[in-house]
Design brief:
By secondary structure, the chain is of the alpha/beta class. Helix content is about 35%, strand content about 20%. The chain has helices at about 15-25, 35-45, 60-70, 90-100, 110-120, 135-150, 165-175, 195-205, and strands spanning about 1-5, 30, 50-55, 75-80, 105, 125-130, 155-160, 180-185, 190-195, 215-220. The strands form 2 sheets. Strands 3-2-4-1-5 form a 5-stranded parallel β-sheet. The longest helix has 13 residues, at about 135-150. The structure holds S-adenosylmethionine.
Length: about 220
């Protein structure tokens, strides 16, 4: 059995009771970054687990052995933050488990995309999640055109280094859109910057530096 265990995206109090119970019950923890996950386990006094790394750079090497192991024992998949396999390693392991008839059980919890959307004030009836886009203007424009055509709110994982460039692109090409920059969700410096692209870029430019993790949301209605 493979449990997909969501972990907090900042605030450790967002760890679910079921997530803690599941981590305690499994002997194997498959982690994107074992030393990062160790802090989480220490915080919740979870000890004595076998940890195996499952990250982008070693997925192909470890997947076969892991799947064989999961036929005999229960394992938990965790990523550094949020829901594993959502813009994080995991999808290939889940796909392989499904193929080989190993039960896959989600243990839901934090996810940056839906956390940002829920408090954005933008329409939530239809949304399109792009995760990380390739770092080019045409890719951003292509994604936003698709969202506009679909009448959906676009959700993009963005970096603090690129956010000004991305919002400038939106200002030039979609001046009537509504933009929300959701930064450092659930953390001490949580911030939502909302408005039309010009208003948002003005607020971003007024900052001396932009740090932390960002979800960019764009609506066209
Ligand atoms: N699996 C995670 C999830 O369920 O949200 C996403 C992991 S992805 C590697 C990391 C990206 O998610 C960050 O670059 C940022 O765009 C977004 N993110 C994660 N935590 C965040 C936070 N606390 N505030 C804002 N964005 C966050």
């Amino acid at each position: 059995m493979l449990y997909i265990v969501a972990t907090p995206i900042g605030n450790l109090s967002d760890m679910t009771l079921r997530g803690i119970e599941t981590l305690k019950a499994c002997s194997l923890i498959i982690a994107e970054n074992p030393s990062h996950t160790k802090h989480l386990l220490d915080h919740f006094s979870i000890t004595g687990k076998k940890m195996v790394q499952f990250a982008e750079h070693n997925e192909a090497i470890v997947i076969e052995k892991l799947v064989a192991e999961l036929k005999n024992i229960d394992g938990c998949l965790v990523s550094d933050a949020g829901t594993p396999s959502i813009s994080d390693p995991g999808f290939r392991l889940v796909r392989e488990c499904v193929k080989q008839n190993i039960f896959v059980v989600p243990i839901p919890g934090a996810n940056a995309a839906t956390t940002a959307l829920s408090a954005s004030g933008l329409p939530t009836d239809r949304y399109i999640f792009f995760g990380f886009l390739q770092k080019t203007e045409p890719k951003l424009l292509e994604a936003l055109s698709l969202a506009q055509k679909s009448e959906a709110t676009a959700i993009i994982y963005e970096s603090p280094q690129r956010i000004i460039k991305s919002v400038s692109t939106i200002t030039k090409n979609f001046p009537n859109a509504q933009v929300v920059v959701a930064r450092e969700l659930t953390k001490l410096h949580e911030e939502f910057i909302r408005g039309n692209p010009t208003e948002v870029i003005t607020q971003l430019m007024a900052k001396t530096s932009i740090k932390g993790e960002i979800v960019l949301l764009v609506s066209f209605k």
